[in-house]
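Ligand-bound model needed. iron/sulfur cluster.
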Amino acid sequence: MTTKNYLKNLRIPTNDNPLRILVSACLLGVKCGVDGDNYGDYPSVLKLLQYDNVKFIQFCPEEFQFGTPRKMCDIHGGNGLDVLEGRAKVLTTSGIDWTEGMIRASEKMLETAQNNNVELAIMMDISAACGNRVIYDGNRYAENKKYQIGMGVCAAQLHKAGFTIISWREYESLEVLYSKIDPEHQVDKTAKDFDQHEWYIEYFKTDSFKKKQ
Ligand code: SF4
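Prediction:
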């Protein structure tokens, strides 16, 4: 089932039985970013805090495993699924191997999702842990930094276990979610998911990217 169909088929949540959503903690303003910040405001997610029929379960896998503040890391040689299957590594900017730790973090995030019986995850895209659609391809601080289509390690772990994930910028998908939660919600028909965004279309149609596929 596609993500959008999954969202369309979600039950109508009530205050007594709210929709259980796992969320990257930084999206709710928790200062768990690498430098002890929260990476800014995410109104598309914060909007959901006003509803009693939504229950957020927040989790930061990197903080759980590596603490805050901590080093920045990225995936080298593949994506999050490749890391889980032993084909790629998670390295800090200075080259320290965090692969094992990140896998442990992903297992804890999966355990959190399962223990809370979550029905959806909303994640921070681009992160080597939480990214759900696009992540860096190697070191984000490299002179010729590159992106790849793929999930971070924790998102991949959740995906493998069957959980549906969207990011804070899947605006079209979020519109479907908002209308499940709030019958009064006026759907913005112009809202786009990230893969319909100009940057995404332009970047991933480049020759160098096509050659890699
Ligand atoms: S993106 Fe994920 S790992 Fe990074 S700070 Fe947010 S919750 Fe933590």
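Residues 3-212 form one domain.
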